[in-house]
Amino acid sequence: MLKQFKKWVDQYLSDPQIVILFTLLIVGFILIVTMGGMLAPVIAAVVIAYLLEGPIKGMEHLGISRRIAMLVVFLLFLVGLLLILIHLLPLLSKQIAQLLQELPALIANGQKELMRMPEKYPELVSQSQVKDFIEFLKSEITRLGQFALSISIASVRSIITIVIYLVLVPLMIFFFLKDKMKILVWFKAFLPANTRLAAEVWQEVNQQIGNYVRGKIWEIAIVWTVSYLTFTALDLKFSLLISLAVGLSVLAPYIGATVMFFPVALVGFFQWGFSSPLLAIVIAYTILQALDGNLLAPLLLSEVVDIHPIAIIVALLVFGSFWGMWGLFFAIPLATLVHAVLKTWINYIREKSEAEAPAT
Hints:
Strand content: under 5%
Order of helices and strands: HHHHHHHHHHHHH
Shape: globular
Structural class: mainly alpha
Helix content: over 70%
Distance between the termini: 25 Å
Mean pLDDT: 76
């Protein structure tokens, strides 16, 4: 057994190139897991700078100097950030306050509708089942309200931190864009001289991650906008808040669409009860998710490596448990990274074995 293990190690893990590749991956993973909270603004700045690099390169292809392109893109980013802070956040906070204010009346209306079900469908639903379901809803809504209150208190306590982040993150983004090459040269100085395998993995994954992140941002924006217009046209309450949640749900393929069905249907039920408007909301949401899954996502993410749905779900569960929302966002790129590492590793071993074969 020990001999077989030693043979496997000698064959797959003894090469310096492989050791360097896996050391870099393990060190990066440990840093993010142990210092992810502390480095959150830095990680956010790196991600946003990575996104802004696309428009900058596009302007460079048009003959515009990088300095001017960087300044234009960064100023547009600041304008968008200010618009979000000035217009979008107050609207969201207003809808959250409205939801908390109207929630008791909505729950009472939904309770009345549920209590009528045993009369309408006695063969399907009993009075005790309805009461048990109402108690379950009350306990879950109470728990959700306590969670929201704890978040609000924590947000109030950390308002200074948020303000600091609003200053630090744009500042770091500016320097990441301005001194990109200097930072890369500085970072490479700490790496071993021969990192061919790591470079091959990065070249394969870099384009995939860029395409995925940019495509996913567009998908969130489009799904959010279409959901908001649809819910507003159907007169669903809290349409801005719910549509934002629907837009963010695309971060978790398959899982997000299923999970968000219940809040959408529940708000519609509390608002109208069993009626044609509720049916219209459910049908509209189903059509929206079908169009997103079968048309929009394939169109925006067509250049991303095709990954089996089981691998996507496993990646969502694993990386989401590690890094929460960021883990959900980067689950597919990270799964692509793992796939690229394994493929490069296997190809390297195969090439090495073929090169050594004539000598033996």
